[in-house]
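hey
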């Protein structure tokens, strides 16, 4: 719905916050925004029916779209995060703006089918295979913007600063090598110039934001952290960083800087209310205090953290410290935000031997409102007046969800539903997914063809 068009959706049940759902919820939409929400009413003539339980659009706060081509190809043999990374670099060496546009479009369309209406793309493959900038230095970023538009979801492009391949013991950076030359802008000043241009191009877009990312303290030194943080602050842009994903990163950071990664980022101005620490798997109680004091967010990516043998993040610390949590499917080993949400609680059960640290409503808030806030869309992720009309209907009649009573609907969605239970997705009032199918894209066929194309170009 654009250009002043109006629509009325009628939800059999809808989650308006808290532990319960309301019945017969009418959502009025004008020009992509919710203008009225009433419950306990019959479906008005001409309204679009949404069966099952309707929740706000899900935010996937941490994505590397091209990793989707790795699915199923990294599961044989032994290894660690670091050997998985070698596989990922082989893929990163192959993509170009055209193949990336197609792969990202299919990956984002898979997300939309899963109920994701906003994605944070942590984007670091900037340059040509030899490390030289493309004729348009933002050709790869623009490919991602096009892909999100075609797939029909909101995008925060987290343009990532990446300048080195590891921490030099003398507190500098080791030079990039191999596929990493594609990530490297050579200086923080060059990163700022490129990202400034990209942000200008999309200023005022209702569906695209350009934010910033520090790849990690392994790839960005303190001087450059300051430059990225200053750019984000002066543009009121969100800033994300991978932190403490691996114990080795903490050890190297301590040896060089006598601080944790979060401590180093905080000392150099990066940790603010617009900051999101991605993973934070090996964060400490002191780190949680720093994040809480700044009003920062943590992005948990439990299916990736499992897949890469990273560990289980200290989510109880974050809960106790009132650090907001959001969710990301990161490497896309699977794309299912319900699985990410319940994994936060279920992994904590395995680690602690206790149930009930994170309730269903808190986990759904992480998947919706908190994720949108982390990506700079503070009004989105809730079904209320003034919010973007981003709605996701989840079936309560599938073989996973059938038999659920109304009072347990949210618990069933969070703890038992899968991405395949999403039947309808509305983004900015536009009905992008209906009856479980994307209205514009044959998603499985596009995934098949775009993934075959990138591996063909690698061989
Ligand atoms: Zn990541």
């Amino acid at each position: 719905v654009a250009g002043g068009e109006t629509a009325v959706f009628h939800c059999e049940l809808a989650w308006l916050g808290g532990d319960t759902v309301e019945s017969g919820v009418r959502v009025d939409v004008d020009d992509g925004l919710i203008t009225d929400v009433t419950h306990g009413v019959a479906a008005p003539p001409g309204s679009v029916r949404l069966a099952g339980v309707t929740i706000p659009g899900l935010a996937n706060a941490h994505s590397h779209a091209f990793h989707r081509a790795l699915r199923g190809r990294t599961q044989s043999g032994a290894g660690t995060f670091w050997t998985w990374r070698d596989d990922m670099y082989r893929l990163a060496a192959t993509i170009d703006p055209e193949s990336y546009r197609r792969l990202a479009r299919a990956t984002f369309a898979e997300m939309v089918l899963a109920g994701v209406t906003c994605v944070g793309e942590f984007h670091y493959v900037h340059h040509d295979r030899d490390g030289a900038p493309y004729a348009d230095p933002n050709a790869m970023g623009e490919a991602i913007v096009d892909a999100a538009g075609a797939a029909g979801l909101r995008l925060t492009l987290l343009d990532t600063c990446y300048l080195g391949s590891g921490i030099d013991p003398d507190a500098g950076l080791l030079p990039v090598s191999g596929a990493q030359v594609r990530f490297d802008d050579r200086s923080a000043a060059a990163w700022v110039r490129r990202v400034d241009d990209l942000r200008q191009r999309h200023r005022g877009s209702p569906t695209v934001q350009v934010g910033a990312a520090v790849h990690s303290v392994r790839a960005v030194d303190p001087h450059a952290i300051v430059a990225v943080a200053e750019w984000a602050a002066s543009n009121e842009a969100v800033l994300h960083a991978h932190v403490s994903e691996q114990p080795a990163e903490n050890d190297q950071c301590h040896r060089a800087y006598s601080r944790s990664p979060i401590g180093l980022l905080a000392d150099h101005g990066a940790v603010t209310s617009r900051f999101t620490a991605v993973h934070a798997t090996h964060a400490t109680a002191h780190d949680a205090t720093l994040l809480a004091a700044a009003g920062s967010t943590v992005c948990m990516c439990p299916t990736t953290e499992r897949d890469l043998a990273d560990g289980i993040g200290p989510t109880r610390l974050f809960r106790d410290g009132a650090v907001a949590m959001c969710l990301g499917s990161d490497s896309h080993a699977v794309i299912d935000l319900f699985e990410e949400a319940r994994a936060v609680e279920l992994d904590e059960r395995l680690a602690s031997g206790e149930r009930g640290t994170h309730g269903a409503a808190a986990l759904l808030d992480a998947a919706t409102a908190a994720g949108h806030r982390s990506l700079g869309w503070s009004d989105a992720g809730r079904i209320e007046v003034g919010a973007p009309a981003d709605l996701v209907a989840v079936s309560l009649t599938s073989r996973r969800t059938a038999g659920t009573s109304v009072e347990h609907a949210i618990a069933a969605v969070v703890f038992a539903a899968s991405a395949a239970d999403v039947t309808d997705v509305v983004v900015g009032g536009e009905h992008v997914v209906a009856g479980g199918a994307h209205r514009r894209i044959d998603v499985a066929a596009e995934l098949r063809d775009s993934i075959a194309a990138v591996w063909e170009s690698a061989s």
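The pocket of zinc ion is lined by residues 62, 64, 122, 242, 278, 330 (CB under 6 Å). The radius of gyration is 21 Å.
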